[in-house]
Design a protein that fits this description.
heterodimer; A: alpha+beta; 27% helix; B: alpha+beta; seven-stranded mixed beta sheet; 7 helices; 10 strands
């Protein structure tokens, strides 16, 4: 909801600056952003009463006082004899109708009405609808204007089980399904109540006589309809959050006053249909309880003063105003007091709870063991397209590719592996631990560990030319056990979108089936998290260059190794020794080094890579007795 | 070192992998909360509406229960939990106060865009004892945020709305660029929730709080796009060793 700063000031006795107003709005729990003179409010869903100038001003009264900002028509109004039947009073306990007819032309909009359209970028529609929209902005009560002459038979309100077409006043064709609160004439739906009127009975720029409907629809009878039919509706937003149960007549009198401000009124008639007894919602006065909830020492007098400024009645009990649907308990009142005094002004009081030991955890031990051996943990979404045996179906999936919950980690981990292969990774070791769900006679939960790997065994001269294989994984996982705990499978590359040939190995096991004492010498707790500052991942390809250093002056060996450990270049992403060979026959040491270059902003040219290579190699090949054959 | 036999081969560094950064942050939070006295409890991700909503005072008409916000499964017999609070409900039903529980794990909302994911992680805590007040809650939240962001961090409490707490608050910290950043939600446990768990509300009261793990991770690591956490990119994950 947006409002104009000056409009709100009209409702306040004091005239706070924008900064002070902003501070107090935050104190009251009304988040917002300010753009010039426009306050864009993000109100919590329980505060439907604040979705208007008047509503926000009521909340600010305790700080700035308020004024009688809006004039209402105070003259007598004739009784309307509308042929109307409310078949669902449980959904709409109160409804009022105003028939209003004007003559002559509509004058230019006065500043308060004109600004609502120009400064808040609202579209003008027609005079009656414009006033209706403005009233909703000013007082928070939606109204709907029918072209009066289009209601040519009995008007019925009901919660109807529908399966019929409806054209909204904005021209959208909607198929109403299931129970919907609607207005109908001659059994034809003319309005989706509380959401949007229909085109067939909408007012136009030529309308001289309007039937204005002003109702209290219960939130539960409106909720979800605007989303279900993809209708953007300010009225639905307000009814869903709850409007004032008692405000309808005053709203219609305000409606008349605004019409009177702009046109000559020929005729006005009003009629009310109420099916509910006004019940006062009251709460006992108990300031001790309030202090017990908040940890404060507020005096009763101060407490009651605050509440009265928020429109609460103070009798033998506290009477909740009719616009506050969110207040029914002592805790609700405690929040009111905390808002007024300011959450930040409530003094903290120490809380002492006995320290708790997290203890050991088999899953964490497993994770630590795998991480120590070069495996990285991944987390995947559980949604899949294909139905697996016993898989659980999602009734309202995000899309048709995410209809079911996975029952295995395999496909997710395989996707992770292939994704990284496409990104030039040649040694991939992943694991995931997740609860998986399946169904037979009931929903079953099982925590599983999945491990996948493919490619080189390592980025060092001992492992570089070796491949990850069944033996490696079996030795890693099963050596501590008397029997084979982890069953390892090779995943065929047939049908996979991959150009790689390295074999893929996979194991998946229920965590419950892993012996408790496995990997006993591994810590259960993780190392303290080091909150590094992450560098965005480059989306550009890397370039790999291999070099073999021939060292014939062994006194230079340590210098070469030292240089290689301190390589630094803006494009150098990775460097490691993948080959080390002592050639005793030729009295020579060979050191093979791989450089991986990558830019964060572009694909590197050969020239750029060449320049980096020369810079990195120069201090080494300048050494006497060290060379790179071929360079 | 003129003899080839005296040459020491290059040292081979351990090639370690990495715990997922989201789990690193989750673990950090759980350790911190254990130090503050909270015991970790666990529960299912597929929940009944009763535990996910009703017991937490989330009424049938609440927007969060709509099909466009919550994933329903198996002909609407269950939901994918939208928060970890039902774990606390299950634990409260099996315990007598005083107690302090944390629940952590995956939660699901029907959202999928640049800033929202259909699955994310929460860490929530609840403490129930005699005379637990909003002033105590403030003290606890200060301790948590000082542990996360340092003693000098500026903290702001704002009124908010959650059906399961009353009063409810959202808590912001002041960022280096002078903007307030929302960090967590908290409040005094709504007595309706305690009553649902058979707890005597004349004697006991409680406080509760919840943090979004991804949000904390993004702030602490400087990750601007939440989706990065779930691409399983080794270049990304490798930075969190």
């Amino acid at each position: 909801m947006k409002f104009i700063y000056q409009d709100l000031l009209n409702f306040l006795a004091e005239k706070p600056s924008k900064d002070l107003l902003s501070e107090k709005l935050f104190q009251l729990g009304h988040e917002h952003e300010i753009d010039g003179d426009i306050f864009d409010m993000e109100l919590t869903p329980n505060r439907g009463d604040c979705l208007s100038l008047n509503g926000i001003a009521r909340d600010l009264n305790v700080f700035f006082g308020n004024t009688e900002a809006f004039k209402v028509y105070e003259g007598n109004i004739d009784q309307l004899n509308l042929n109307f039947k409310n078949l669902s009073p449980e959904a709409c306990p109160a409804i009022h109708f105003l028939e209003i007819e004007i003559e002559g032309n509509v004058n230019a909009y006065k500043p308060y009405l004109a600004n609502y359209f120009s400064l808040l970028s609202n579209n003008k529609t027609n005079f009656f609808t414009d006033v209706s929209n403005y009233i909703s902005y000013e007082l928070g009560q939606p109204t709907h204007c029918f072209e009066a002459d289009s209601i040519n038979n009995q008007l019925i309100f009901e919660n109807r089980n529908c399966n019929e077409a409806f054209k909204s006043l904005l021209g959208a064709d909607i198929n109403l399904l299931g129970n919907n609160c609607v207005f109908s004439v001659n059994n034809k739906i003319i309005s989706l109540a509380g959401v949007m009127g229909g085109q067939s009975t909408a007012c136009s720029v030529n309308t001289k006589k309007a039937l204005v409907e002003c109702a209290f629809f219960k939130p539960e009878s409106i909720i979800g309809k605007s989303v279900a039919y993809n209708l953007t509706s300010d009225a639905a937003h307000k009814f869903e959050r709850g409007v004032d149960t008692q405000a309808q007549e005053i709203v219609l009198r305000r409606f008349i006053e605004i019409i009177k401000d702009h046109a000559v009124i020929k005729n006005i008639k009003i009629q009310s249909f109420e099916d509910h007894q006004v019940q006062k919602n009251s709460i006992p006065i108990d300031v001790k309880r309030i202090n017990k909830i908040l940890g404060t020492n507020i005096e009763e007098k101060e407490y009651l003063t605050y509440l009265s400024k928020l429109d609460f009645g103070i009798e033998n009990e506290i009477i909740v105003p009719s616009h506050r649907h969110d207040i029914s308990t002592q805790n609700d009142l405690a929040e009111e007091i905390a808002r007024i005094t300011g959450y930040n002004n409530i003094e903290s009081k120490p809380l002492k709870i006995k320290k708790n030991d997290r203890g050991t955890d088999k899953v964490n031990t497993l994770k630590n063991y795998l991480i120590k051996n070069g495996f990285s943990e991944v987390i995947n979404f559980p949604f899949i397209k294909k139905e697996e045996r016993k898989s659980i179906s999602i009734d309202n999936p995000l899309d048709s590719n995410r209809n079911y919950l996975r029952t295995s980690l395999k496909d997710s981990l395989l996707d992770n592996l292939l994704y990284n292969e496409r990104r030039q990774k040649d040694s991939i070791k992943f694991f995931e631990v997740s609860d998986l769900y399946s169904k037979d006679d009931q929903i079953r939960q099982e925590k599983k560990l999945g491990i996948i790997m493919s490619g080189r065994r390592g980025q060092n001269y001992l492992d570089f030319s070796k491949k990850l294989d069944n033996t490696y994984l079996s030795e890693l996982l099963n050596n501590d056990s008397e029997s084979i705990v982890f069953k390892i499978d090779e995943i065929s590359r047939a049908g996979l979108k991959s150009k790689k040939n390295d074999k893929i190995f996979y194991t998946e096991i229920s965590v419950d089936k892993i012996p408790e004492n496995i990997f006993n010498d591994i810590e259960s707790s993780f190392e303290t998290t080091n909150f590094i500052k992450y560098q965005p991942v480059s989306e550009f390809p890397s370039s790999t260059k291999d070099f073999s250093f021939s060292i014939k002056d062994f006194n230079k060996y340590d210098t070469v190794i030292d240089h290689l450990s301190k390589l630094n270049d803006k494009y150098l992403k990775d460097a490691y020794i993948f080959d080390f060979y002592e050639n005793k026959k030729f009295n020579e040491i060979k050191v093979g080094v791989r450089f991986v270059f990558q830019s964060s902003s572009a694909t590197l040219s050969e020239e750029e890579v060449h320049k980096s290579v020369n810079k990195l190699l120069k201090p080494i090949i300048d050494l006497e007795g060290v060379s790179v054959p071929g360079m | 070192m003129s003899n080839i036999d005296n040459i020491e081969p290059p040292i081979i560094k351990d090639e370690v992998g990495t715990l997922h950064p989201i789990n690193q942050v989750k673990d950090f939070l759980l350790n911190m909360l254990a130090d503050l006295g909270f015991q970790e409890v666990d529960g299912p991700e597929i929940e009944s509406e009763e535990f996910n909503f009703d017991m937490l005072n989330i009424k049938k008409s609440h927007p969060a229960r709509q099909m466009h916000d919550t994933f329903y499964v198996e002909n609407k017999s269950h939901v994918l939990r939208t928060h970890t609070s039902p774990v606390q409900i299950r634990s409260m039903l099996q315990s007598n106060p005083p107690f302090a529980f944390t629940s952590a794990g995956k939660v699901y909302r029907k959202d999928d865009d640049a800033t929202h994911l259909p699955m994310f992680h929460q860490v929530e805590g609840i403490y129930v004892d005699t005379d637990v007040t909003f002033a105590n809650l403030k003290d606890l939240i200060h301790q948590i945020l000082h542990n996360l962001f340092g003693k000098d961090v500026k903290i702001r409490f704002r009124p908010s709305y959650f059906p399961f707490t009353e009063p409810s608050a959202e808590v912001d910290i002041l960022s280096k660029n002078g903007k307030w950043l929302e960090i967590l939600g908290c409040g005094i446990v709504n007595p309706i929730v305690l009553k649902n768990c058979n707890i005597d509300t004349e004697k006991y009261s409680g406080l509760a709080f919840g943090l979004g793990v991804e949000r904390i991770a993004m702030l602490k690591y400087g990750v601007s796009d939440i989706r990065e956490f779930y691409k399983s990119n080794l270049d990304f994950l490798g930075q969190f060793k």
